[in-house]
Design goal:
This protein is mostly helical. The protein has 2 domains: 119 residues, no CATH class; 55 residues, no CATH class. The chain is built from 6 helices and 2 strands, in the order ααββαααα. Strand 1 and strand 2 form a beta hairpin. The longest helix has 37 residues.
Length: 189
């Protein structure tokens, strides 16, 4: 993959290796994917022709800012710390408030990421030509409906004198069908 120093974007796996090299948490591509899904990584995620890619500098900052507490890794040969979070000296009441606010922040970030992703997808599909503006579709449908109505309403005026002269019902039916087909065929022009 590419070197993060030159300002290029990394795949999820390459970004996980980048985090592992810095001895940070989130060293698997699954952890990176969860961070994107949960809304912790938003500004650093970019759509490229090869799929979603991550700007490592922005992602490192977002990971720090949007993660509730900094996880402490277990020392290589030692025992795990008593607390998984640094600075976990808060009384129980304050800890529960902190958990509630971080859950709310995570939910808000998730919603923001989902809406942003939807808007980006809509914008992309609009530019690709897969989506069209609803107002223009409605205007065109109204114009075509009015044209069909006008063409069909002109038929009686156009053929009434011919019908008065015809006594055979099969000829009358054939003339009416011909006029209807002609009126509808003119819409394709």
């Amino acid at each position: 993959m590419t070197d993060p120093v030159d300002g290029t974007f990394l795949s999820f796996r390459a970004y996980a290796r980048h985090r592992a090299g810095l001895e940070l948490s989130g060293t698997s591509h699954n952890a990176v994917g969860k961070a994107v899904k949960s809304g912790r990584l938003v500004e650093s995620v970019h759509e490229t022709p090869k799929g979603l890619r991550i700007d490592p500098e922005v992602a490192d900052r977002e990971w720090r800012e949007n993660t509730a507490g900094t996880l402490v890794r277990e020392p290589a040969g030692g025992r795990a710390p008593d607390s998984l979070f640094e600075g976990d000296e808060l009384p129980d009441a304050q800890q529960s408030e902190r958990a509630k606010s971080s859950a709310t922040l995570a939910n808000a970030n998730t919603l923001q990421a989902v809406y942003r992703a939807r808007l980006l997808r809509l914008d992309f599909e609009l530019k690709e030509g897969r989506l069209v503006d609803r107002e223009s579709v409605d205007a065109e449908a109204f114009r075509l409906y009015r044209l069909v109505r006008e063409n069909l309403l002109k038929i009686p005026t156009r053929i009434s004198s011919q019908l008065a002269a015809i006594t055979d019902s099969r000829e009358i039916r054939a003339l009416i069908e011909t006029e209807i087909v002609t009126a509808l065929a003119s819409l394709g022009d």
